[in-house]
Specification:
With about 170 residues, this protein is mainly alpha-helical. The protein is built from five helices and three strands; from the N terminus they run ααββααβα.
């Protein structure tokens, strides 16, 4: 059975091309996610105590909110990219699924490094005890790095369940 695209002479893009497209878009999206996280994450006020940086227990909620903002943003990026690439490369579902899973982690790592680079550094050198300082922007929950990939894989799998054409998932020669 030939598809409409094959009858028109359009070949499916190679798996390498699909992987490269997802890789490039994920790197750019990772930088954008890092900038958005830096802009949207709340500032956490710390205080210098004995030459070290500490924070009040009331500021703990803001530390959680920083991780939650990162998690929600990365989930949104995973959703958006998976819908776009699953629809765009519907004849290469396996390459899309594996690439989205791997590059979601890479994009999240890039976002974490960009956000931490742009955020406050938390340097306390030369400050007296009791001075107020902004805590550095850090991702405390390393599990948040997997949310982009998890959302992307779930969306790609759900879309695959509702596909009419199952041939891309069948073994070669069938």
């Amino acid at each position: 059975m030939t598809t409409r695209a094959e009858r028109l002479g359009h070949d499916a893009p190679s798996n390498t091309r699909v992987v490269l497209q997802i890789a490039v878009v994920s790197v750019v999206a990772g930088v954008l996610l890092g900038v958005l996280w830096w802009l949207l994450a709340p500032d956490v006020q710390g205080v210098v105590v004995n030459g070290a940086l500490g924070y009040d227990s009331r500021e703990g909620q803001h530390l959680f909110t920083r991780d939650a903002v990162f998690a929600l943003l990365s989930g949104g990026f995973g959703l958006l990219l998976s819908v776009v690439f699953v629809v765009w490369h519907r004849r290469n579902p396996v390459a899309v699924l594996v690439s989205l899973a791997a590059m979601g982690v890479v994009g999240s790592l890039i976002a974490r490094f960009v956000g931490e680079f742009l955020g406050p550094d938390g340097s306390v050198s030369g400050l007296a005890d009791g001075a107020d300082v902004l805590l550095p922007l850090e991702l405390k929950s390393t599990a948040a790095l997997l949310i982009w990939s998890m959302v992307a894989v779930v969306v790609a799998a759900v879309v695959a369940l509702f596909r009419e054409d199952r041939t891309p998932w069948s073994p070669p020669g069938v």
